[in-house]
Design goal:
- The radius of gyration is 16 Å and the shape is globular.
- The protein has a single domain, classed as 3-Layer(aba) Sandwich (Rossmann fold), CATH 3.40.50.
- The strands form two sheets. It has a five-stranded parallel sheet.
- The chain has helices spanning 13-24, 31-41, 44-54, 61-72, 75-78, 90-102, 117-125, 163-177, 179-187, 199-211; strands at residues 2-6, 28-30, 81-84, 109-114, 127-130, 136-138, 155-156, 190-194.
- Helix 4 (61-72) runs parallel beside helix 6 and helix 7 (117-125) packs across helix 8.
- It is 51% helix and 15% strand.
- By secondary structure, the chain is an alpha/beta fold.
- The protein binds adenosine-5'-diphosphate (ADP) (2 copies).
- One adenosine-5'-diphosphate (ADP) binds next to helix 2 and helix 3.
Length: 215
Amino acid sequence: MRAVLMGPPSAGKGTQAARLGTEFGVPHISTGDMFRAAIAAGTDLGQQARGFIEAGKLVPDDVTMGIVRERLAEADARLGFVLDGFPRTVPQAEGLGEILASQDVKLDVVVLIEVPEEELIRRATGRRICQQCGRVYHIEWNPPPGHACECGGALVQRKDDSPETVKERLATYRTQTEPLRDYYSAEGSLAVVDGTGDPDEVHRRIVRVFEGCSL
Ligand code: ADP
Ligand code: ADP
């Protein structure tokens, strides 16, 4: 399975991609998680990405393409992947197409998860992530067992999940990422999935789409 999960900020891409990756036995590759790990580790990549992320803007395409190119060259990703939050611009989609063509493979499907804007804001502002393992919770809809993660790690709020930055990220999505809808629709690989309802329900909808692909 070679799939892309697309959608506005906090639509549930990470929640669904983690589960699908485990179920289909392919790596879950999230550019957002890779950037956050680089920031936490204080690497050059983290320093390059930080300002853009905190402002709700996209990290420049050349930087993003660089990390994805490296990750997709690793052995586990050669057999399949669930990409989460990448591509986010038309040039990134073109770059991905070139990487896959050079490996003589193609995307099976691009799933666009749709959620109304008011709900996105509530999902983002209630999101908490584990500092240790990266697991994602929601204070209301997917609360942690106690005050900490199941792994014992402390839960933190992402800096870019403040209401102002969420609005900025939504605007970035509308202008820079939404054009991918037409791009992948023209390619014939787009499937639009309703992202409302509980995570199990959304999962079932995506699995139905996956099962319809020629694997
Ligand atoms: P994304 O990766 O698209 O930004 P996440 O998977 O991190 O989104 O989800 C954003 C927030 O919404 C998290 O707090 C998550 O627990 C919560 N969430 C995810 N899916 C659902 C859902 N179907 N219903 C309610 N809350 C959800
Ligand atoms: P969400 O989907 O909730 O907005 P992510 O964790 O996917 O969050 O991404 C967090 C931030 O990381 C984005 O707002 C953006 O600044 C940066 N980022 C992630 N993926 C990309 C990408 N493909 N291109 C450019 N920037 C990215």
